[in-house]
């Protein structure tokens, strides 16, 4: 009972601050279009022309997510390796040298900036720079996810057992060799699992980015929702669930292969 009361005391001012009013959903003016829209969900639209468009836009959505994540990895991996303390030669004897320490903090700050700006904001920016289309979505995912990947990659590497890495560095091995022969074997499964999870998130993000003109299924769903075409929306939601299921299976398969 105490925890329920404590939760109520904490949540009440938050609900007041956010003007959360679920009763608005039950008003007659809101119920009628809601029921009409939901009733139109079934059966899903499955005619040949629509399915052709659905397959094309699904492939485009996956391509946006995959290309964006690939670019994010190309940016995140070098930033991650430069910001990881365990790969610093100057830190082997204790405190890291001044210049490497400043460089490490600067790179960490770059990663904070990249991940603190939501991909939706990046997409709005790039839509105005390069115009409507998938390019904006790819660049938005690349920048936002590079910060996320770089930060989590660094945390995973830092939490690994450092003995083997430090031994190689003390014996004159380069940083890349120490990474590939000591750090990577310990963390490959965790890094792969997180990367596939981020790919799954990127697919969902690419759908959301479509609502601001970044292409893919999201843009088509936006059009269908504006037209209150529930059967088309239902078909697209089914496709999204299948994509998430596929990403989960790929992640499980990769973890099993690296175990």
Going by helix content, strand content and strand pairing, the class is mainly alpha
Number of strands: 0
**End-to-end C-alpha gap:** 44 Å
Question: Helix content range of the residues, please?
Answer: over 70%
Q: Point out poorly predicted stretches.
A: none
Produce a short descriptive summary.
This protein has helices at 2-17, 28-39, 48-83, 98-116, 119-130, 134-158, 163-170, 175-209, 217-226, 230-258.
Main attributes?
single chain; 259 residues; mainly alpha; MetI-like fold; 10 helices; globular
Q: How would you characterize the overall build of this protein?
A:
The chain has 259 residues and is mostly helical. It has a single domain (44-258), classed as MetI-like (MetI-like fold). Helix content is 78%, strand content 0%. The protein is built from ten helices and no strands. The longest helix has 36 residues, at 48-83. It is globular, with a radius of gyration of 23 Å. The model has no long low-confidence stretch (mean pLDDT 82).
């Amino acid at each position: 009972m105490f925890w329920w009361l404590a939760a109520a005391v904490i949540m009440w001012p938050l609900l007041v601050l956010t003007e959360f009013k679920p009763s608005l959903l039950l008003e007659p003016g809101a119920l009628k279009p809601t029921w009409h829209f939901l009733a139109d969900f079934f059966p899903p639209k499955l005619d040949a022309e629509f399915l052709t468009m659905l397959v094309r836009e699904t492939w485009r959505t996956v391509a946006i997510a995959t290309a964006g994540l690939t670019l994010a990895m190309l940016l995140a991996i070098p930033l991650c390796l430069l910001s990881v303390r365990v790969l610093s030669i100057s830190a082997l004897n204790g405190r890291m040298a001044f210049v490497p320490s400043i460089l490490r903090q600067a790179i960490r700050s770059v990663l904070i900036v990249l991940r603190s700006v939501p991909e939706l904001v990046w997409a709005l920016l790039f839509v105005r720079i390069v115009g409507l289309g998938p390019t904006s979505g790819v660049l938005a995912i690349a920048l936002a996810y590079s910060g996320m990947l770089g930060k989590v990659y660094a945390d995973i590497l830092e939490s690994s057992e450092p003995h083997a890495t430090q031994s190689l560095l003390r014996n004159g091995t380069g940083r890349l060799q120490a990474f590939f022969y000591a750090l990577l074997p310990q963390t490959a499964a965790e890094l792969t699992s997180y990367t596939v999870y981020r790919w799954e998130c990127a697919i969902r993000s690419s759908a959301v980015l479509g609502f601001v003109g970044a292409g893919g299924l999201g843009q088509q769903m936006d059009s269908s929702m504006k037209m209150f075409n529930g059967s088309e929306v239902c078909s697209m939601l089914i496709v999204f669930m299948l994509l998430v299921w596929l990403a989960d299976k790929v992640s499980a398969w990769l973890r099993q292969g690296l175990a």
